[in-house]
Amino acid sequence: MMGTPLPALIKGFNIPNGQVLKFIVQTNAISAYGDQITIRDSVSTLNEMGIGESQFYAAADNAYLWITTTTNTSSFFFTWQYIDVTGFTKIQNPTGSIIPLNLTQNSYYQFTSTKSRVAFHTASVDRTYDLSLIQVYVYDGEDLNSKFLGTLLQFGASTNMSASTGKSLTLVNFYGTPTKSYGIANDYSAVFGYFSYTFFILSKGIDYTGNGLVPDGFESAVTFYCIDSQETYINELNMEDRKNGAQATHFKPLTPTDVFTNLLNYNIGDPISQSLPQQILTNTFTMVMYQCNLYLSLSSGPSYIWTLGAPGRRGSIISPSVWNPRTSVVAPYSTNITTQEKVKFVFNLQSIVVDKPGDKIRIEIGSSDSKPIFVEFNTTDQNTGEQGAYGTYMSTTFTGTTAGARFIMNFKVEESYINNVRFLNPNVTGQEVRVKPMGPSDGDYNNLLIYNYCYSFYGIRDSVDLRLPQQVPSNIYTIGFYQCDVYLSIFTNPFNWKNVVVGRTGSIISPSLWNPKTQLSTPFFTNLTATLDVQFVFDLQSVVIGKAGEKIRIEVGSFGTSPIGVEFNQTASNTGTKVDHMKFIFITILSIFIIGVLSSTEQSGCGENEIFNECGSPCDKTCAEPFPTCIEMCQARCECKPGFVIHPTTKKCVDIKKCPK
Fold it and tell me: Taking the complete model, does pTM exceed 0.90, yes or no?
């Protein structure tokens, strides 16, 4: 029943510093009907009391209570009590601290900086707006005698970065109610220079995905805190190329207040996808973004994907002590990277610090069918150089358990396969695709692979198909394009490389040629297999033996029969073609230095002093005409080796010096 509005009843209260005023209110008033009881606190926030019994704590130094009604049916009852809070227990925290905001009743939480003001940010596990923070009060000083700033919900929502005016900030929850949020305190000087600063909570089973947009010339930062795991993985990290110069994303330990070096650095143009997933062995880390558009995906808890290696994969293995520099004791660390096929694992121990006797790192590479090799370091060292070995796993174990024992190791899994080279313009002659080791700034290395056009009477025929896929046992190489438009595809799956058909040709080139700066620790091997019996033809273009015991062995055979093998244990070049009629070829190189092998298959074997050419000339070189004029036409055939021509009598290839006068 609606009635005549009654004048508002207003009562004011003065609240001394060090005290709070506790209200207990009972009412059946419905505000939609114009009936309500409201308390205004000392920062002028209006707090409407709901139906039933409720309580409210008003901080110093004043409060006002209003009762308004437009009906004759509402009732209001309230009591108040002054409470001295100077005897509350102090819980002190330095800046850089992260705490759950389930604050203990009758205690207050002091956050103090030695450098500047105190900035405070909050985050919830479910990343929603946490209304329970309205019951956490913020004081601008070292205790509850300080100035009341409002509730933590208000404080965190301020347009300027939330911070104290002095070097201390205090939180208290007079209600003792739980909250799902966490809070982080930082030195204001450590975060105010960012375009934006954010705090996020991580948890096992709850993946994080987010976007960041940082204007040109600015940095933004995010601190991540995982509540239930000491390991998090970067699964995706994409930066849009805004063509604004340098764009970068960095990851460092702990909070902005804790000034530590970046441990992970990703720049625009880097092969970032090959560097993921990346392990982070801490529950607290900070990401800094520089003038970039970023998409990021993280997951916390053990990750099976981290353990999977594939050609082209790279990354960093960083000890937990590096990620947790303020932790005095950590557990021994180990991790494995595994592959289905044998690949070359390459690693470089960027740094290792041994803190006490018995500390060491062991890197072991091996497979189920061979004896593993390993290397150990038990002294402090840095930049030990790249070392590599072939296997299906790389195991890294570190026994250091103190904060002073630490290591950082970079690794990569080498090998990829050129699957398709397709020239797109039929009207340009002399087009080439050239492949050489390393990057342009690593030195001037020779081209190891060259692909070009081959002409025919009917037009242009691209003979490259017969030479693909082509193995490249490295994860760094440079492809050059000469006056051509080309479609190029590169795979990491070795399946097609191993399976050969009639007419297939290619090159087997030792990893030492592709990786001239890497020390190899184990032999290299590869095998090619045909479904039917074919004739494998190979010519050892060059082999360099560096020390006693090194050799190359080429073995050709069929299942169920004894293989035929040939070995070379001396430096040699152009050893001549070898032909064997079998189903598979198995090549083992027991040399850690420069070796080059050319391998091909054909339907019928070539004769003495002949080689098979998938794009040979239809016109023979003879004693009478060693350099014949001929139409440009591709023909897969046997032809005389360079320097040899067909003899007029024997019709066989002979050294041109043996031709009749």
Answer: no
